Structure formats: structure tokens, C-alpha cells
């Protein structure tokens, strides 16, 4: 009979954890391999959380009741909130358990001034998406000098930005880490020009549109507000699926826009092209 040579535990764990990271949909099946594998892999199921799905929401609620605080602290890195399934109190309780978040998207009723203290307590957060008007209560109250924004590299804004919005443009230009900015739907051409002119560190400015406004998006791409290679226009489809792909390390619209701009700079894409076909 051949003698078995089991793998060292450390190597075995690395193999299973790598498999869970590279193939997230297969992670649940790995839980059934062995008790030790279940212990290693379960945290990876919570690394990326989308609370727009009822089964996921219920699993997270159950884990909040059953798991120690350290489980969420060590597991959760990316979170998308959905106001349809969670109350504000539940959300704030979850955020207190996840101090190591790297990306957080807060839409609808969750983006209120009550969220600001929680954001200040997330020192590892680098990507945030949501409406600034909601976060600060009113457009006039927006204050990008808040310490939280100084760490953000990728900012996805769901606010109308008008040509005369000098204060918001100046606030964006003052952010020391900001390299990627996304503006959604109605945005003044003058505002885009000012942001691109003032934000020297900005690598990409993506102007995303709702599919119902694809005609307006095509028109902007054909007649951009400024001939700047960093400017990219697109129409989003399955926005949150795309977010989840990016959270797992795949090619989301940010990565696609980076590649698009890089190809323009080397002449692989015409300088006059501003349309990003990523979602199609």
C-alpha cells in the first residue's frame, strides 16, 4: 500500500483560501470538505456583502447574532447597503462590526448626516459611493474637508453637478488621494471642465448614464466638454453586479476605464473616442 504524504496544514490552508479568493461562487461547496476547511473558508463568504439579496441579508443577520465581533472585523472588506431590506439601526450596528472596510456604497435613506460618524471610523476605506446631498443633508452643507474624504481614491457620486458649482469642484480638487471620480447622469459640461482642469491627480473621470438616457450619453461622448483623455462616458447595466465583480478583484467599470484611458494614451484607441463599451 502506498504511503500517504498529507500536505502541511499551512500549505493546505493557503490552497483552499486561494481557491476561495479566485473562485468566490465555489466557496460554499468548500465548506463541506472538512471542519478545518469550513473554519478557514467561512470568512471569505463575508468578504464581499451585498445586502440587496434576501438570503444574504438573513445570513448576515444570523451571523451578527451568532459570531463574535472579531469575525466581521477580520472578514468584511466590501459592503453595499440596500435600504429596502435593512433598517438604519441595523446598518449602523453592522458598520460598527466592520472597521476594516475598504469599499462602501450607501444609497437612498442610508446616506444621511447620521452616517458621517460611522464613516470617520473606517480608516481603511478607499472607495465610497453615494449622494453627497443626502450625506450632508443639503447641497449647501457638503463639506469635502471632512477627514473621511482625505483617504478616498475612488469616489462615485450620485448628485446633480451644475456649471456654477465652484465649491464642489474646489472640494474635489483638494482631496489628496482622489484618483478616480464617477459622476452619474446630469452633470454640467462646465463642471466637468473645471474638475478635469483643477484635479491634476485625477486619472479617470467616468460619466455614467442610466440606460434610459443612452441617447444623451452618446451625444456627450460625441461632443465631450473637453478633449481630455481622462474623460470616459458609458451607460451602466447591472451596476451592482459590476460592483461585486470589482470587489472580488475582477474587471469592473473602474478597471475598464483605466484600461481604456491607457489604450488611448498609446494610440490603440482613437483620441477622439470617449465611449466605454464595458457594460455592453
From TrEMBL:
Domain of life: Eukaryota
The name this protein goes by in its record: Uncharacterized protein
InterPro entries: LRR_dom_sf
Organism from which the protein derives: Mycena belliarum
